[in-house]
Every structure is written in structure tokens, then in C-alpha cells.
Amino acid sequence: MRSCSLVSGITSLLPASAAALCRRIVDDRVFRGATVTFDVNLRPALAGTGAADDLLALARCSDVVFVGRDEAETLWGTPTADAVRALLPEPPVLVVKDAAAEAGEFSRDGRVAVPATTAETAEPTWGSRGAAASARRSAPSGRPLCRADAGSLPGIRFPPRCFCRYAVGTNS
User: Fold this and answer.
1) Could you give the number of structural domains in the chain?
2) What is the pTM of this model?
3) Measured between alpha carbons, how far is 82 from 79 in angstroms, rounded to an integer?
4) Domain that holds residue 79
5) How many other β-carbons are positioned within 10 Å of the β-carbon of residue 45?
6) CATH code at position 129
7) Nearest alpha-carbon partner for 64 in 33, 31, 27, 107
8) Residue 15: inside a domain
9) Beta carbons of 111 and 103 less than 8 angstroms apart
10) pLDDT tens-digit readout, 4-59
């Protein structure tokens, strides 16, 4: 299994050295052969002038992107998951969480949507951690929603624990 680098939009909105690190991971691919996943993770308190363009550039260069439909609309004016995909055709896998409606995945194989499920909320979040949790909880047979192991990213398989750990915000 290939390695995976998870980059957060929060980090890219921090001081210049943190933003530069994100660009090195995503644009320069300093971890050769690693799949780059990017969680937009909009934090309005951190987002200054140019944040929308910076986050969009990072998303366009990533292999897998997680974004909430609401945060995408706030950043880029995209009111639907399909509009987000139209704006971001580059990532081989795009997961868009639409609040209480669904988590949708766009890949080379097309679009798959899983209805949102009801779960106890420990902490409300913008978009993507909830998308990962919803995808993990809703996927049949305990498999993650992301179908990268079915061919959208050859040679990469995301184990179910990847989404569990991601959903609770750890990096291990």
C-alpha cells in the first residue's frame, strides 16, 4: 500500500512558513509516491485576503479532496456538490459533505452519494471531518465511501481505520 499525506486547509492559513510547507507537500510532492489528501477545513477567523484562491490551488493539486458544500459555497460561490466538482475537476477523488443531506464522492467512476446518518455530535465542524465520519458510518460492510481501492487511484487502498482516525482528527 502506498503512503498518504493529509494536508489541512487550517495549516495553509497559518503563518507563511506553515503555508509554504503545505505548498511543498501538495505542489512539489516532497513525499515522492505519496497520495496527497487535502481537507479544505475553512476557518473564517484565519482566512484572510486570498484564502479562497490559496485553498482552491491546493485542492486542485491534490489526489483526494474533502470539502463541505457549505464551506465551498462560502469560499468559491459553489451552491451544489455538482458545482464544486465543476470547479474542481482535477482531483481524482472529491468528497463533498452536504450537511444533513449526504456525503457525495466524485471519481473517474462517476458520482456516488450516501445519505447522511444521525449521530451524536461531540463537536460541530465545518464539512470534511463530518464527511469522513458520515462516509465511514454509512458505507456498506464497514468499507469507506472512497472507492480508491476500486481503481480511481490504482494501487491505493484506504483501510476503514483511515477514515475512523481521520474523522476524530488524529494523524496516526
Assistant:
1) 1
2) 0.71
3) 9
4) 4-167
5) 6
6) 3.40.1190.20
7) 107
8) yes
9) no
10) 888 999 988 888 888 889 999 998 888 888 899 999 998 888 888 889 999 999 99
